[in-house]
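Q: Convert this sequence to structure tokens.
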Amino acid sequence: MGDIDDLITDWLTLPDVGERLHVDITKVRQLLRERKLLGVRRDGVLRVPAIFVGDGAILKGLPGTLSLLADCGFSDDEALRWLFTDDELPGSPVQALAENRGTEVKRRAQALAL
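A:
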């Protein structure tokens, strides 16, 4: 999974996510369970890509995209890899979400199920 580490260089710990979202760590864990956020263990610590969390909000379109990818059978690692590398879009899907081009991302994610 080294390639994920090459793609994602800015990670947040769960307390950092809670601070950015203005919620406690219990709520952050709930968001992860509900697949509204996605995290992976790095050096024994559960971390979330920093781009997923702005000041007070989860990246627009991310929860729906994560649901679509889960429905397509993607594991958490596969979903992360797709979000940061899919080359069918100009830029990566996560960049498209950050640029408010979520419709393109959802269309691509839905096509994976076909």
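The two ends are 26 Å apart (CA to CA).
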